Amino acid sequence: MTLSATSHRARPQVPAVPGEPLLALRDVRMHFPAAGGTRAAPRTVKAVDGVSLTLHAGQTLGLVGESGCGKSTTARLIARLLEPTGGQILYRGVDIAHLSTRKLRPYRREIQLIFQDPVSSLNPRHTVGTIIGTALRTHRIVPPHREVARVQELLEIVGLDPDHHGRYPHEFSGGQRQRIGIARALAVRPKVIVADEPVSALDVSIQAQVMNLLEKLRREFGIAFVFIAHDLGVVRQFCDRVAVMYLGKVVESGSRDALYGTPMHPYAQALLSAAPNLATTRGAPPRARIRLVGDVPSPVDPPTGCRFRTRCWRAEDRCATTEPTLTPTAAGLNTACHFPERLDPSWLEVA
Amino acid sequence: MSYETSAHDEPYLVVRDLRVSFPTAAGPVEAVRGLSYSVPLGRTLAIVGESGSGKSVSSLAVMGLHDPRRTRVGGSVTLGGQEIVGAPESALRRVRGARAAMIFQDPLSALHPYFTVGDQIAEAYRAHHRVGRGPARARAAELLDRVGIPRPRARLDEYPHQFSGGMRQRVMIAMALANDPKLLIADEPTTALDVTVQAQILDLIGDLQQEFGSAVVFITHDLGVVSEVADDVLVMYAGRAVEYGTADQVLARPLHPYAWGLLESIPALTGDPVPLRPIPGLPPRLTDLPGGCAFHPRCGQRERVLHGRCASEAPDLAPRSSEQGRLSRCHLSHPELIFVQEILPRLP
C-alpha cells in the first residue's frame, strides 16, 4: 500500500487549483508581546517581520539563517501552530492564517511538522504503535482493523523493524527516534512536510542516513518540503530553492546553485564564507574570508532601514533610511540590498 | 614559565595506554580502551569522533576530572612531565587552571550565574597567584580585552546572562587563559554557536595559540571545524584511536574505512551535489562491543580481508602507509589505493 491509496471514509478535501503554488506566504508577520511596553506603546519581539515565500508541489525550500532570524517561527506559522499577527498564509489559494481549529483540520493533515528533538516530540509513555496509530486514527486514514498493519508498513518505509511497533521511544537511538517522528508525519499522507532542524542533533553518519530517507520520501511520494537547518551543506544537499533570513526578514532567496554560487547579499556571503568547506582540503579553491563583527541586534528594536547595516561593510547613509526590498539581482536570485555585488573570489580578507 | 619541567624532547602532553571504565550493575563499561597520543607545545590536535567514541571521557581524564569513586582510570597521562593518573587531588588542583585549562561546549552551565564575570575570572587567577583583588581585577579586564570583548572594564561587573552565546564563550576562554596554561582542552567549544560566531571563536583560539605557543586539544564531531583548526587529527571509534596523522593527511587521504564513511556522509558546499553514502547501522553499545575490529559490522571493506579476520582479530594501531607518522587500525593491506581509486571519486 502506498501513500496514494484511498482512505476508507470521505474526508474533507482541500481543493486543488492548477498552476497555483501549493503554499504561499505573503508579508507574514509574527510579533510577540515583549516585557516593558505600555498599552499606549506596546513593545513586541518582531520574530518574523514581513516574510513572503512560495512553495510548489514536490519542491524543497530551504530556510537558513542564525539563531533568532525567525526561521523556526516561520516553520510554526506554516504549520499553523502559531497564528500570525499579519499577512496571509495561502495553502492552495486559501488563506489559512486565521482559520479556526475546526476549519484547520484538513490542512493540519496535509501540512506536517518534524522537529529537531525527537525525544521531546514523542510521548515516552506510548509505544511507537500507539504514537503512529493515533495519527492514523485522528485523521481516519485507515479502518481500525488495518491500523497495526499500516503502522508496520510505515516503520518499514522509514527503515525501522516493523516488529518493533510495541516498543517505547527510549528503546530507540536518536536517529531511530527521528525516523519514528518521520513515520508519524508520513502516516497522514501529507503534501508538505515542514522539517525544523531534523538532522542537527544527530551524529554525522546517522545524519546522512536520515537525509537519504527524506530524499527518498520526496522522490517516491512527491512530498514538498520546507527544510530548516543551520548547516548550509545539509540545505544545499536537499533543497531546490533556498531563502536566507536575518532578523525576521528574507534577505536573499533563489535557486540553490545561484545562492551558493553567486550570492549577492553581504549577509549571505558572510554566512557562506564562515561555513567550513571540507572540499577545500581536497583541492577546491578557498573562498572569500569574511568575518562579521558584533552580534545580531535585538528583534525588539531592530535597526532602521536595512537590518543588516549595523554589521555590513558595504553600508552607506541610504541603508539607514530606506529599507531595501527583494529585487532580482542575478539569474534566479532575489536580493534585498541597496548595494548587491558579486564577491570577487580573490578578495580573501574583507570586513 | 617558572614551572617548566618537561624534559627536552618530550611533548608537553603525553597520553599512554589510557583506559577509562565505569562500573555499572551490568559490569564495567569501558569508554576508553587503551588510548595513546601526544601533543607538543604550539600544536593543535583535533580528536574527532561521534557520540560515545570516548573523546570527551578521555579528555576529562587528562584533566584528572573523573571521580575516583565512580570511575577507574588506568594508563598514564603526563603534563610537562608530571603524572596525572592517580595523582592526589591537592596536586591536581595545582595543575588545573595553571598548566592545563578546559573550555566546554556550553558556557552558560560552566559559568556561575550568581557571580559577575569579573569576579569569576579574578577568582581563577587568584587560585594560582598571591595577589590582591585590585590586580586580579585588572588582570580580568586585560583578559576580556584580549579575547575581543568590547568595553572590558564595564563588562567586568555584568553577569553571564547579560552576554550573548559567542561573548560567553569568549569569557570562558578568558578564564581558561587566566594563568597562561600550557595546555588548552577545548571540548566542542563552537558546537552550540552560530556559524559566523563559530568562525570568530575559531579565529580567536588560533590567534591565542600563536601568541602563547600552548598545546591545544580540540574535541569535535565536525570535520569541517577540524579542517580549520587542526595540525594533527586523531579519529576515535568505540573508545579507541582508529586513525592518526596530520590534518592534511587525514582529511585529504584517510586510511581507515570509518574515516571514509564520515567523509561520504558530509555534504559539500561546492561542486555538484552527489548522493550521500552513510555508514550503515549504528555505533556499537559499549556494553556489547563486537569481537575483532569494533567497526567491522558497519564496514564496507571487510570482504576484502581474508579469513574473516576483521571479525576475529582486533587490528593494531600501526603504520599502514608510506607517509611518516601515520597510523591506522585496520587489516586492509592497501588502503591508500582503495581510497584513491574507489572512495575519492565519489566524495561529495
UniProtKB/TrEMBL annotation, chain A:
Domain ABC transporter, residue spans: 23-272
Taxonomic placement: Bacteria, Bacillati, Actinomycetota, Actinomycetes, Micromonosporales
GO molecular function, one term: ATP hydrolysis activity
Keyword Transport: yes
InterPro entries recorded: AAA+_ATPase, ABC_transp_ATP-bind, ABC_transporter-like_ATP-bd, ABC_transporter-like_CS, Oligopep_ABC_C, P-loop_NTPase
PROSITE patterns on file: ABC_TRANSPORTER_1, ABC_TRANSPORTER_2
Family statement drawn from the similarity comment of this UniProt entry: Belongs to the ABC transporter superfamily.
Name of this protein: Dipeptide/oligopeptide/nickel ABC transporter ATP-binding protein
Organism (species): Pilimelia terevasa
Pfam families: ABC_tran, oligo_HPY
Keywords from the named record: ATP-binding, Nucleotide-binding, Transport
From TrEMBL, chain B:
Keyword set, alphabetical order: ATP-binding, Cell membrane, Membrane, Nucleotide-binding, Transport
Protein name: Peptide ABC transporter ATP-binding protein
One record GO biological process: peptide transport
Cited SMART domains: AAA
Membrane association type: Peripheral membrane protein
Domain ABC transporter: 15-263
Signal peptide (UniProt feature, chain positions): none
Localisation: Cell membrane
InterPro entries the UniProt entry points to: AAA+_ATPase, ABC_Ni/Peptide_Import, ABC_transporter-like_ATP-bd, ABC_transporter-like_CS, Oligopep_ABC_C, P-loop_NTPase
Pfam (any one): ABC_tran
Family statement drawn from the similarity comment of this UniProt entry: Belongs to the ABC transporter superfamily.
Organism: Pilimelia terevasa
Main location: membrane
Keyword Acetylation assigned: no
Entry's Gene Ontology cellular component terms: plasma membrane
Cell membrane found in the keyword field: yes
Any GO MF annotation of the entry: ATP binding
